[in-house]
């Protein structure tokens, strides 16, 4: 009753513990928190297997709906690891295939290689060696410069080859793994490689080399890299003892077996190894005819192996017991243990386990030796044939994998060549385009230069024509002035003199009339003199030709366009002191500005001002139009022309404008000759 109560209480604690976990997960905020919790519970060994599987499946259900990135793959591998530790092979395989497909879609070669390795582990656990070897080979071809994982994958292949009896192939593969980490510090890889080589050479009865590599393995144990729970030292000590056992040097063998059993926590960390060393120690004792501890050591090892369901170990133990009892003339027990070993071997998938049983039965049952030997030979032949076939399969898988790799390499080379060709064609096309664009730009530059020359010639012709007109005008005015002064004024002076002489006649009426005539003549004379002086003064004050041309431009603007134009030109400046190049550029700037205003500004008023301030000439053109964004419009052709012409004059330009507030362009140009009239 008390026992039942404690069981009931324990069940309640487990139940409420599970409920508590479920509630803890239910209150988690984010999916990431839920994943972390599920994965944590999935590896909690205090939970039942079914419950751990449920938590792992919940984590998987969340992860597969997340974006396919590197972190997503890391989480899926964690799910796979938990399935592996639970021996849930279906869940493990499904998860790894999901990672593989995601890696292929994102062209993630690193995680593809890792997924292939995981699939190799799956098929190795299922004893499907050819499939495991194929996936390891695929991973090996993808690891590239990842030397550590490359070596690990080759080691996995070597173990498969050893397990299938392909000892030469295993030896070659292990040495290729060692070459991969030749320049790196990887003691764990070195240990496993040397250990496997020792086992291979032991199987091939090359005992000296087996001892050499097992001692190398022992020397490369690095506890900072290799956890103590792996019991690497105990493993190597057992392997060294086993080689000496095969050499019939049982005293040396027992020394190593005893050292192995003395390793701390061996029974807890690796009970299967503990059972193996016990059995090996007992067998060497038996061979040395030492009865102390026998057959109890055999029984102790068998019990432990039976609890761990280690089929191969159980068979070996029972054959050793059969040998032991046969030596004691206890034929019944000897046959019993041999037949039990045979039945266990026949029920297993590995026929190698049957051979040792048949060999022992043939020894202890001589009457049936022929039957047992025939079975032995038949099974041995089948195994040798299977080993040859598996070796050929391994070779074919490696060949096909290499062929696929070569095809992929060739495809990569072809793609790379195509990229180079298209890049070359693109660069050639760009070069031709640049050359053509440069030619076009040069033609435009030549055209502008020619246009500049033509503009200057036209301006010079205009100046020349204006000078001719002005010269003729001055000459004509001078001629008229001379005619007035010398002709009319002279005759009028004569009349005045004649009239003056008539004043000597003292007729009152005549005198009065003469005085009137004289007064009138004086007035005419004064008027004519003033006209003559005005004509001569107009010539000296006549505005230079440049001003006249600008006036014509402004008059044309007034006649043609709606905006009111107000012009102010400083007429005290000696314009002839400026070079024709500056005058042309100023004229073109005024012309360009007016055109821009007429096209875009929609202005009501335009002001043009030319004035002198100290030693600089200032041109200001303003309007009350729409305005514009100066920063956005700087690349416009009109503004660029104004700026380039100002630069040619060694001047500066300032443009102020804002949308809706009109525009003001101010240009300052220095005089080449600083002598300016004021």
UniProtKB/TrEMBL annotation:
Placement of TPR repeats on the sequence: 191-224, 234-267
EC number(s) from the headed UniProt entry: 2.7.13.3
Transmembrane segments: 418-435
Main EC class the enzyme belongs to: transferase
Keyword field: ATP-binding, Coiled coil, Kinase, Membrane, Nucleotide-binding, Phosphoprotein, TPR repeat, Transferase, Transmembrane, Transmembrane helix, Two-component regulatory system
Coiled-coil ranges per UniProt: 514-541
Domain Histidine kinase span(s) in chain numbering: 586-673
Family annotation (Pfam families): HATPase_c, HisKA_3, TPR_12
Substrates-to-products reaction catalysed: ATP + protein L-histidine = ADP + protein N-phospho-L-histidine
Coiled coil keyword on record: yes
Protein name: histidine kinase
Species, as recorded: Flavobacterium ranwuense
């Amino acid at each position: 009753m008390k026992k039942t109560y404690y069981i009931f209480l324990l069940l309640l604690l487990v139940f409420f513990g599970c409920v508590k976990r479920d509630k803890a997960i239910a209150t988690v905020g984010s999916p990431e928190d839920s994943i972390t919790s599920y994965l944590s519970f999935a590896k909690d060994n205090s939970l039942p297997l079914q419950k751990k599987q449920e938590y792992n499946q919940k984590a998987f259900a969340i992860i597969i709906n997340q974006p396919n990135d590197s972190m997503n793959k890391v989480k899926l591998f964690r799910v796979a690891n938990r399935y592996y530790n639970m021996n849930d092979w279906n869940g493990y395989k499904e998860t790894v295939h999901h990672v593989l497909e995601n890696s292929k879609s994102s062209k993630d070669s690193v995680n593809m290689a890792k997924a292939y390795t995981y699939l190799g582990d799956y098929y190795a656990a299922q004893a499907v060696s050819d499939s495991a070897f194929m996936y390891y080979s695929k991973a090996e071809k993808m690891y590239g410069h990842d030397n550590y994982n490359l070596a690990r994958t080759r080691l996995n292949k070597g173990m498969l080859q050893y397990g299938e009896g392909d000892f030469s192939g295993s030896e070659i593969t292990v040495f290729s793994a060692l070459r991969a980490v030749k320049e790196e510090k990887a003691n764990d890889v070195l240990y496993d490689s040397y250990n496997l080589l020792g086992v291979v050479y032991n199987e091939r009865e090359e005992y000296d080399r087996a001892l050499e590599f097992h001692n190398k393995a022992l020397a490369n144990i690095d506890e900072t890299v290799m956890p103590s729970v792996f019991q690497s030292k105990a493993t190597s000590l057992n392997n060294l003892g086993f080689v000496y056992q095969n050499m019939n040097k049982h005293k040396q063998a027992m020394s190593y077996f005893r050292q192995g059993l003395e390793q701390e926590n061996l029974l807890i960390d690796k009970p299967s190894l503990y059972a193996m060393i016990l059995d090996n120690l007992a067998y060497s004792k038996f061979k040395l005819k030492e009865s102390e501890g026998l057959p109890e050591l055999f029984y102790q090892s068998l019990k432990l192996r039976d609890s761990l369901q280690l089929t191969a170990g159980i068979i070996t133990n029972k054959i050793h017991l059969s040998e032991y009892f046969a030596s004691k003339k206890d034929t019944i027990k000897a046959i019993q243990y041999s037949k039990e070993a045979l039945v266990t071997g026949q029920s297993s998938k590995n026929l190698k386990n049957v051979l040792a049983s048949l060999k022992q039965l043939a020894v202890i049952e001589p009457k049936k030796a022929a039957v047992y030997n025939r079975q032995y030979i038949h099974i041995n032949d089948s195994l040798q044939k299977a080993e040859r076939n598996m070796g050929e399969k391994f070779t074919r898988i490696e060949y096909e994998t290499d062929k696929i790799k070569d095809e992929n390499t060739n495809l990569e080379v072809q793609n790379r060549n195509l990229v180079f060709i298209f890049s070359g064609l693109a660069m050639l096309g760009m070069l031709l385009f640049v050359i053509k664009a440069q030619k076009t730009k040069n033609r435009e530059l030549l055209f502008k230069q020619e246009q500049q020359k033509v503009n200057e010639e036209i301006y010079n012709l205009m100046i020349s024509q204006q000078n001719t007109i002005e010269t003729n005008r001055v000459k004509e005015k001078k001629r008229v002035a001379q005619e007035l002064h010398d002709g009319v004024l002279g005759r009028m002076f004569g009349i005045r003199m004649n009239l003056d002489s008539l004043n000597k006649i003292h007729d009152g009426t005549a005198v009065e009339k003469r005085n009137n005539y004289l007064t009138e003549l004086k007035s005419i004379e004064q008027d004519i003199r003033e006209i003559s002086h005005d004509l001569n003064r107009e010539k000296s004050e006549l505005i230079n030709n440049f001003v006249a041309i600008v006036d014509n431009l402004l008059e044309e603007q007034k006649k043609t366009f709606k905006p009111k134009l107000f012009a102010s030109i400083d007429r005290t400046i000696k314009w002839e002191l400026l070079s024709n190049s500056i005058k042309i550029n100023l004229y073109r700037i005024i012309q360009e500005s007016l055109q821009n205003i007429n096209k875009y500004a929609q202005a009501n008023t335009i002001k043009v001002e030319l004035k002198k301030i100290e030693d600089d000439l200032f041109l200001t053109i303003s309007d009350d139009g729409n305005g514009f964004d100066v920063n956005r419009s700087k690349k416009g052709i009109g503004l660029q022309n104004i700026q380039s012409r100002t630069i040619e004059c060694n001047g500066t330009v300032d443009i102020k404008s804002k949308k809706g507030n009109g525009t003001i362009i101010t240009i300052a140009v220095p005089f080449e000759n600083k002598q300016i009239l004021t």
